[in-house]
Task: inverse folding
């Protein structure tokens, strides 16, 4: 049995904690480089702003409707998420953090009224962090997610579902009749795992509601679509098929990619960016205790502009699997120099580390050349600790550029609120 | 999370494990006595954990936030302009406590007066006015101040 708990309009809710004047106003949070809306308050949704709406298309609403648009403040959201997840874990004996604002909680063995318990945890999160949440409870993860959707929608749109299902919805205690009514009132596209394309195909085939989906034969689904859809249907029917991950598995590839705040034409700017991305990827690599055997570097122009298009990548093998930032950056830069061409407006670059293996296994190669590299893992871990203590960038590779946020390609964030909980200088002010 | 000025100190708990815990602390969690040869240290068995001031003050880490005070209205309560206050949103506000409230969309720090269903926000400085909610106005108490820190010039 599972619960799915997630924050309502999470990024906006985080902003409202420290800026109560935003409560009740239409607010959106913009993606990196202030491109499009990635979070909307209920008031913003009511204005018709869709998820992913490009900012330039809705900018006028700032004047006409008082829409407030904020740049993403991930330092803040990350900290608030941390707090929320720690409190949510109190709901049951196991937690799988699914995203920055959602987590599954395993409820096996939890006694007493689950709705009462879920309401208490929800209240605590609201009181302690200011973030309103929805909780869904089901015998499978898919049903928990569905219940969560019902809980959210019942609260947001009165009349969509019985009012008592608002905020916390428990499908496990529903009678057959009520469950079927709930399923019938829910479009099939809202089921976890049913994407837009499959949703459209299902509707075309006469499967419009979750009830229709629940009545499908799973074997037919597998033949007509995929084993993924079969699994989803079985989960909706009450058979758990999707596992629970308490501990996230180590990644098999680690990437760091960014779109630039402004197009970059010269190699120097790209060298800075690729060095930075290599460093960040190498940090993640060390954190999960891995070495990489291959480094991929790519650069590309923006497909959204009418500029001449160029997109290329190059994969560079490392002499020996490593997590050394300098060696990885060297490999990425070697790849960059090979693929760089003059005359293009580059909009995005990235570094990907592949062929990962545990750092406890050290593979030697046949030493025909004199070995000049020594093991610098102690240097790397020291660097990581200094950066952790004094902030990212306290120690860095010089070729990453020393201007921080003022680098030509740095992310554009013109409307970001202060990092209230992670930077001393950004603390919120209280008037005495 | 309180941090020393100019740094982003974050002390890891000694336990490993994947769930992130916002640890507030000024010191390492245990006195680690390691001696390779010679006498074992009596402190290994009988020693104690160094006092962690913030751990002692902060009862609800997930609900505790730090705010910077600007203004003079709480001087007589010992809270001064430039102080940092630790505010706990988990504590139910009671009469006489110093609280952070939301007034006209801004955070305000005052002493709470609460009796018989009525409430007022009292300044601790005779030259500053108290705040009384107007008819029907509801003033939200954001959190209770558990500590205030005056950093002296050194």
Result:
């Amino acid at each position: 049995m599972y619960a799915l708990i997630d924050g309502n309009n999470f990024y906006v809710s985080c902003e409202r904690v420290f800026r109560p004047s935003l409560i009740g106003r239409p607010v959106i949070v913009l993606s990196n480089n202030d491109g499009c809306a990635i979070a909307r308050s209920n008031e913003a949704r009511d204005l018709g702003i869709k998820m992913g709406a490009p900012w330039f298309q809705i900018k006028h609403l700032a004047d006409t409707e008082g829409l407030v648009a904020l740049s993403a403040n991930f330092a803040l959201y990350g900290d608030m998420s941390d707090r929320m997840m720690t409190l949510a874990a109190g709901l049951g004996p196991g937690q799988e953090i699914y995203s920055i604002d959602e987590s599954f909680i395993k409820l096996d063995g939890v006694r007493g009224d689950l709705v009462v318990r879920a309401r208490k945890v929800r209240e605590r999160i609201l009181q302690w962090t200011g973030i309103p949440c929805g909780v869904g409870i089901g015998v499978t993860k898919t049903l928990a997610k569905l219940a969560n959707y019902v809980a959210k929608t019942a609260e947001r749109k009165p009349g969509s579902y019985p009012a008592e299902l608002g905020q916390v919805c428990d499908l496990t205690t529903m009678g057959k009749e009520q469950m079927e009514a709930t399923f019938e009132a829910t479009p099939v596209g809202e089921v976890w795992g049913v994407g837009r394309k499959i949703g459209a195909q299902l509707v075309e085939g006469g499967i419009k509601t979750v009830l229709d989906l629940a009545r499908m034969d799973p074997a037919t689904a597998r033949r007509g679509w995929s084993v993924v859809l079969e699994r989803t249907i079985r989960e909706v029917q009450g058979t758990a098929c999707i596992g629970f991950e308490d501990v996230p598995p180590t990644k098999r590839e680690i990437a760091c990619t960014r779109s630039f705040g402004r197009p970059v034409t010269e190699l120097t700017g790209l060298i800075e960016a690729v060095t930075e991305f290599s460093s960040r990827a190498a940090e993640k690599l060390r954190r999960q205790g891995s070495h990489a055997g291959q480094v991929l570097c790519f650069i590309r122009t923006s497909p959204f502009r009418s500029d001449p298009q160029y997109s290329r990548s190059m994969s560079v093998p490392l002499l020996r699997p490593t997590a050394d930032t300098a060696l990885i950056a060297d490999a990425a830069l070697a790849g960059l120099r090979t693929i760089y061409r003059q005359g293009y407006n580059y909009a995005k670059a990235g570094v990907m580390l592949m062929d990962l293996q545990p750092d406890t296994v050290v593979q030697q190669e046949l030493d025909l050349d004199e070995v000049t590299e020594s093991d610098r893992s102690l240097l790397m871990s020291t660097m990581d600790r200094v950066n952790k203590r004094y902030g990212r960038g306290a120690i860095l590779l010089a070729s990453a550029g020393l201007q921080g946020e003022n680098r030509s390609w740095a992310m554009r964030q013109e409307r970001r609120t202060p990092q209230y909980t992670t930077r001393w200088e950004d603390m919120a002010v209280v008037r005495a | 999370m309180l941090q020393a000025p100019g740094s982003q100190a974050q002390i890891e708990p000694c336990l490993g494990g994947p769930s992130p815990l916002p640890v507030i602390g000024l010191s390492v969690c245990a006195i680690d006595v390691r001696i390779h040869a010679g006498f074992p240290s009596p402190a290994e068995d009988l020693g104690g954990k160094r006092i962690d001031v913030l751990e002692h003050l902060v009862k609800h880490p997930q609900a505790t936030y730090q705010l910077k005070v600007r203004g003079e209205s709480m001087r007589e309560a010992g809270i001064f302009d430039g102080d940092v206050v630790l505010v706990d949103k988990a504590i139910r506000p009671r009469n006489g406590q110093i609280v952070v409230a939301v007034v006209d969309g801004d955070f305000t720090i005052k002493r709470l007066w609460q009796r018989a269903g009525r409430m007022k926000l009292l300044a601790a400085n005779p030259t500053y006015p108290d705040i009384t909610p107007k008819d029907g106005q509801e003033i939200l108490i954001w959190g209770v101040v558990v500590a205030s820190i005056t950093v002296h010039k050194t």
